[in-house]
Amino acid sequence: MRLSKLLTEELVLAGMEAADKEEAVEILLDLIVSRYPLLDRQKIAAAIAEREQIENTAYGRGFAFPHARTDAVERMYIALGVNRTPLRDQTPDGVPLRVICLMLTPSSISQLYLQSLSAFARFARNRDNIRRLLDTQTPTEIIDAVFKSGVKVDRNLLVRDIMVEKVITISPDRTLKDVANLLYKHRIGSLPVVDDDDKVVGMISNRDLVKAAMPDYKTLIENVSMSPDVEPFDEFLKNEDRITVGEMMEPDPATTTEDTLVVELAAMMIFKNLRRVPVVRDDKLVGIVVTSDLVSKIIRG
User: Fold this and answer.
1) Using an 8 Å Cβ cutoff, are 284 and 101 in contact?
2) What is the pLDDT of residues 152-205, one digit of tens each?
3) Per-residue model confidence as pLDDT tens digits over 264-275
4) Are 201 and 148 in the same domain?
5) Burial of 230 (0-12, 13-18, 19+ CB in 10 A)
6) Residue 116: closest CA among 59, 72, 77
7) Engineered SS bond to 113: which of 15, 101, 105, 209, CB 3.0-4.6 Å?
8) Rounded Cα distance, 60 and 64, in Å
């Protein structure tokens, strides 16, 4: 199904005049409620505000996708507005915000909602599309611009719908000190290890750092009364800039592809006790899925 099929002229604004994203959401919500007056506007507005408090829905590239899953609606509603002037909100990439797409969906629906959100994100990634939208004058022209983009809504929920594309990586010749610095700086638990061709050759985690500091941990467990001759963490700190990632990483980690079904990936992550799975295309890293993505993007929405 083409993405444009989700849009109707009555819920599209070509000349929206909002000062910021909050006002734009109010305008679009008013538009939906004016067409469907039986909807509980107050309850819907509260659900949107709650979702914004969890995470800013500004996507970047001039787009924002405020959304909410709420029992106040029985089907999905999508309202899209193109603002005449840039909104004054801060954005992830510094590109002025101009296009707001408000999505409302019942709590019981996750797949279509996520697939639609992913399709809009793919539409936004093409820089030509925002220029086309800014050149439009009517709702019909907006829908036609979305149609001509060729973006489709997938029938199944795929890994590409939930993966993170910007991945923090490290190379095998870097040191454990570099690993520790990156893990701390980005507040993450592990890193894909990639070679010069962006091929995933391993994974390294906080657990691997602790293992490097305590290579004789099995002996310590078996002899709990035994005290090591040298404080292991002190020794580790002396050598952390000498031990390479390649020496301590987990080689040949499990990976997935963009076209893998999310349910298959989730089953693999549970079965193999994986928290982070690199996504590859032609053996090269293009993204990553973390267990928290399954919670935030599917379960929580």
Assistant:
1) no
2) 987 777 888 888 888 999 999 999 889 989 999 999 999 999 999 999 999 999
3) 898 898 888 898
4) no
5) exposed
6) 77
7) 105
8) 7
Q: Does residue 15 belong to any structural domain of this protein?
A: yes
Is the pLDDT higher at 268 or at 299? Answer: 268
Write down the pLDDT at residue 217.
46
Collapse the DSSP code of 89 into the 3-class scheme (helix H, G, I; strand E, B; otherwise coil) and give the result: coil
Strand ranges inside the chain, DSSP E: 12-16, 58-60, 63-64, 67-69, 77-87, 97-105, 190-194, 200-205, 250-251, 256-257, 276-281, 284-290
Q: Is residue 158 part of a domain?
A: no
- Look up tokens 């993007």; give the residue: 297
Token pair recorded at residue 23: 């006002």
Contact in structure between 148 and 133 (CB atoms under 8 Å) = no
Strand order in the sheet with 190-194: 190-194, 200-205, 250-251
Strand partners, 60: 63
**CATH code (residue 87):** 3.40.930.10
Q: Write out the residue range of the structural domain in which residue 95 sits.
A: 3-153
Cα 176 from Cα 191, distance rounded (Å): 12
- 75: its two tokens: 């089907």
